[in-house]
Amino acid sequence: MRLGLDIGGTKIDAVALDDDSAVLARVRVATGFGPDAVLRNAQSAALQAAEAAGGSASSLGSVGIGIPGVVDAEAGVVRHAVNLGLEELALGGILAERLGAPVRVENDVNAASLGAYHLLGLAGSMAYLNLGTGVAAGFVNDGAVWRGARGTAGEIGHIPIDPAGIRCACGQVGCLETVAGGGWVAHKWGGDAPLPVLEVFDRADAGDERAVALRAELIGGAAAGVRILILTGDVETVVIGGGISNLGDRLAEPVRASLDELARGSQFLGSLELSSRVRLVPAGEPVAAVGAALSGPRQNTKEPSWRS
Amino acid sequence: MRLGLDIGGTKIDAVALDDDSAVLARVRVATGFGPDAVLRNAQSAALQAAEAAGGSASSLGSVGIGIPGVVDAEAGVVRHAVNLGLEELALGGILAERLGAPVRVENDVNAASLGAYHLLGLAGSMAYLNLGTGVAAGFVNDGAVWRGARGTAGEIGHIPIDPAGIRCACGQVGCLETVAGGGWVAHKWGGDAPLPVLEVFDRADAGDERAVALRAELIGGAAAGVRILILTGDVETVVIGGGISNLGDRLAEPVRASLDELARGSQFLGSLELSSRVRLVPAGEPVAAVGAALSGPRQNTKEPSWRS
């Protein structure tokens, strides 16, 4: 059995997959804060997922982990996962020892990319456009994640698209993230709604002008992200995921319409058929946890069933 | 022996490579205009290169061709090569019959990418930033060209970077090409110098304010191209090529300085060490022709020597 853990800012989403990569069980536990809590809860989530799938601690095949921050996949080390209180943690090595199973650590966006690719049954090339607090992308080609030469592929949120834009937290001006990142939308909108982007969309539907403008900016930014990904990598499919993608077709339809509008102004863009290449991540599925499981150490081999 | 032909707007650059991919001979002939002329001159260039290398028409191993326009590499067909007077031409099939050797047709930027990768002795991942009349990029990873899902990877010249910019020929506004493309620089500069970008650099050195501004815009655009390529694909190396790269360090040094300036304003960008990843294409080398030869049908096999 392969376990996958998606360690997020508030919860750990854990799944157990069978030999055919179908989800046998899914559990969620609170993440906690700081290295001790994260390690303890990750271990607990893994064991609970194994147990829920009918397995035991002694029958774990492999464990894959998706986690935010800068991940050194080779060393199993995560750094600068600020929201989790982790400055530097040898997550892979420590959990492997505690669980008695091989553990692979992957950047959360890369894990989600692989999960989306699998759950959508895609082939060929795909980019995963993660619209969450920030904006980043992951790439999968023929089932393999492209991490880049130094593990930083897909940082498209920090490509500047407007010299007259606002200053990004990264120090540059007019980054894509400043128009398409949920953190910036929330900051511009103000208030303390638990789901500020949802509130912006709801208020825009109700005719609030400021909300309409913010929504249009977000939609335009998402379309710009799709355009960057296809003009650069010519991926066959761009899958929109991340927290904002929970808006579903309320997000995807206007993004496609925005791309169609761009195509009407440019025969060249039109020839690329951008809008028809946009997909939404499947709603409610544990995309990142499944991807983490698939990126685990035994990704390409059939394990013996733990039910022996 | 492997032959490589780089079919450009004015000349065909042809090389013959030995089994170790070293250049045995190089010849150049005028391209001509329209399908009949291009086919006749390509055939002639191939035979002259073979002869100059000591071979004969009956001993050609493989022929690779780099050509501008929209290339269907599978079918060997080139479309919309406007500067060559080619609307649609089954270049690969026709030349294969005339030469009695397998022929592979490749987009010129992809061919140059592969040639630069080989001539610079690179490993891992590379993007080739072609600064010519237009702006486009090619990708090579572990020696293989990434063409994209539909053969259009690397069209970064048409990523808009300034909503207040000028309208590009593609119909969009503020495309990277409108600041970093030689065609646009020439258009803005005016006059009829044979090498307008060189004239702009010379006049900028002499203190002409308009030239200084145009040069700064071009340098900034080239730096933006490097940033897009690394933020998206995290390639280890970006090689600057194309006609404008003939300026050598007069181009590369200020591009690196521009990237260093950006890094001083952004710790995040600084961590990516952009400027140290920029290389220039080797001066005077037949980069595209060599790459075309390497992309020929027998790219991965040692051919028997034609000297038998």
From TrEMBL, chains A, B:
Q: What is this protein called?
A: ROK family protein
* Family, per entry: Belongs to the ROK (NagC/XylR) family.
Organism the protein comes from: Gryllotalpicola koreensis
Pfam annotation, one family: ROK
Q: List where the protein spans the membrane.
A: none
